[in-house]
């Protein structure tokens, strides 16, 4: 054991109060802590004395006989050590005076490993004696399993787990009131790394791919490292690490890859390791690597790769696999394309322009794959840039601003933009105006506001000029478009959008209500109109006998006698001027029709019905009459053809 690095300190307490002593010492094995008072071991059966595992002595309900000198005694199988003495002095009683609840010692922040014991101390004083309670700050229950309360309020959690991590709150409440004082401490429980999935030993043919998986858990989350025969193994070449190093992939394995691979998972709480063996199966009679691999660019997106057969064991070859990746990409981004055994060249398409690619080939047989050929590099051809998008806006009475997207890559390929412009009425362009690829606008000034200009913008690089974007622009047209399409008032638009939903809902309700009322009006109104008018029409109908026997004195439907009918119209119908005067009065207002003389008590509803139908009747007559004929007054259906001449027509309806 070392010497005590914390000795107990002298303290003074009031009768009925609380006293606390603490000592700390390190040793192997861990020392056992006991306490002595006046060189005599204290009575552990006394409920007022509480000994905590971390070397703390608490005395509650102090009395005069508790005064004395206290020593901390640490012992293990190696030795026994005694701390310095600390005197406790108990003063007179102050039990009559009221004291607010006070927490003398609150819980400390603890970091433990699973299966250890957590001691959360809480020493409170007050008059009357406060009630100590515990809770978690996150509101989760503390539970009961493995939970113990020592003394008047010390929380002991045995065999802690990761789920016990959290902030614990100690509260001292005055009995019968809501007066309370709180203190809190954080408990962090760590778990050493342990494996959820161990790597498994495998055997694979030469030229194939081997994969090991190693998954571990712990708190904090562990870091995984791979070793090959005891040496740290990092990604590179044909070795890849994925999923936070939990997956080890070795592609194109050979005899040199046969080894013991170890997975080591570690965190601040501990570490674990697991191992597995890779056995490489070397089959007799495998072909050698393909030879003379060459890659020739064909276009900006295509490369032709060619090769020759291996030197040995070519009889069992069933095909070739071409491995492709960008030269700047890691090996895990590689992809493959299969080729038949009788083909010794392959056109690789869908590549990116001006980009370097790496190629290598393997020959495959039913027994396995050959070793890889020597890799070869090739770059796709470049191409001229695409036409850039172009727009414009007015900056003044004689200035246009041209806008497009910048292309920084043009500068990497000795490129930029070329701008040309001219009045549409002229043959020669002004330009080219050379602009770097990072520029995104250019102002054309001193322009004629009345002229239309043709503007061309193209991008170029070391492979030539791309196609141009052509625009015909004028200051007048651009200014009108700007006035018709002012900048967005985002605040106003946002307010409009917020009210649009409410307006739609209200409009739907109003529309449905109007439709219902219209349908009801049409149904009931039409039914009533037909019933009321049927009798009146029967009363006003002319006799149905032969035309020669009809009485010339019988009234027409509108109360006009035979003497009031004019000459025949073009279709054999006579015209009545009085009725047309009522339909189309000279003053522009309709006059109510006179009631039929035969039925002076006819309902007003029928008069309105006749009035509403007459304009339609009059319009049909106007359509039938020749344009040069004088305006008729009316036509009486079924009346005799004789009669006096019609009066002169009015000047207009």
TrEMBL record:
InterPro entries: FN3_dom (IPR003961), FN3_sf (IPR036116), Ig-like_dom (IPR007110), Ig-like_dom_sf (IPR036179), Ig-like_fold (IPR013783), Ig_I-set (IPR013098), Ig_sub (IPR003599), Ig_sub2 (IPR003598). Residues 2-83, 101-184, 192-279 form the Ig-like domain. It is a single-pass membrane protein. PROSITE patterns: FN3, IG_LIKE. This is Immunoglobulin superfamily DCC subclass member 3. Keywords: Disulfide bond, Glycoprotein, Immunoglobulin domain, Membrane, Repeat, Signal, Transmembrane, Transmembrane helix. Residues 540-571, 624-653 are annotated as: Disordered. Belongs to the immunoglobulin superfamily. DCC family. The lineage of its organism: Eukaryota, Metazoa, Chordata, Craniata, Vertebrata. GO terms for cellular component: membrane. CDD domains: FN3 (cd00063), Ig (cd00096).
